TrEMBL record:
Protein name: Phosphohydrolase
SMART domains found in the cross-reference section: HDc
CDD domains for this protein: HDc
Gene3D superfamilies: 1.10.3210.50
Residues passing through the membrane, by range: none
Entries under PROSITE patterns matching the protein: HD (PS51831)
Organism lineage: Bacteria, Pseudomonadati, Pseudomonadota, Gammaproteobacteria, Enterobacterales
Top-level division of the source organism's lineage: Bacteria
Length: 232
């Protein structure tokens, strides 16, 4: 059975059995991560089935950002995935299960588990790219809204005179986590894409800053200087 056949089977099973209720971690997220992973896999000697499976099941257990067990999500997801593969997909190659488990365990930012295989590095990069660019912009406000967080602090939106708090303000999450992601990327292609997409978020911040000052036609150049990646 080829990877495309496995994708169809996983997609069908996930669609029927998985309903996380989280717009940022739904079936469409799994599909996008796999699509990005395929870009990162190009020209690499990699086990595509391991990557595919980890992409589709990495968030089968996913606690909210403010949940006390958040850092355990990926390990629990890896355990659940192994059980699902055994019970629902008995023809899945047993020699690929360990690689899938590790890739799922290592994908999480909060778990702090370093990826040891190229497959795990690709899955981690593909998942983190979902937090950047236009998709990342949509997801951060969706997640923050579901948690009851404000869009930003109206008195000090860019935390010039206060501590960052991304549990209270969605915009703070850009600096608490998202703009740090390019430095954590595991592959060269992933790093380049992450820098490009992080720069998009910085330009959003600069546009927001200008609008808050009453200027709807320009961006705040100071914000670009402070946070931009200055890509060529």
């Amino acid at each position: 059975m080829n990877v495309i056949d496995w994708q169809h089977r996983f997609d069908q099973w996930i669609s029927q059995h998985f309903n996380h209720g989280d717009a940022a971690h739904d079936v469409s997220h799994f599909r996008r991560v796999w699509k990005t992973a395929q870009t990162l896999m190009q020209g690499q000697q990699v086990d595509a089935l391991v990557v595919l499976t980890a992409c589709y099941f990495h968030d089968i257990v996913s606690f909210a950002k403010n949940h006390p067990q958040r850092h355990q999500s990926s390990v629990m997801a890896a355990e659940k995935t192994a059980a699902i593969l055994e019970s629902e997909f008995p023809d899945f190659p047993q020699n690929a299960v360990a690689g899938v488990r590790h890739a799922i365990e290592a994908h999480s930012f909060s778990a702090g588990i370093a990826p040891q295989t190229l497959e795990a590095k690709i899955v981690q990069d593909a998942d983190r790219l979902e937090s950047l660019g236009a998709i990342g912009l949509a997801r951060v406000f969706a997640v923050s809204g579901s948690m009851g967080a404000a869009l930003f602090d109206g008195e000090d939106p860019f935390a010039a005179e206060r501590e960052l708090d991304d549990k209270a303000f969605a915009l703070d999450h850009f600096r608490c986590k998202l703009l740090k992601l390019p430095a954590t990327m595991q592959t060269e292609q992933g790093r380049k894409l992450a820098e490009h997409n992080a720069d998009y978020l910085v330009h959003f911040m600069a546009k927001l800053s200008a609008e808050l000052q009453g200027d709807h036609q320009r961006v705040d150049e100071e914000v670009l200087r402070r946070f931009g990646f200055h890509l060529a």
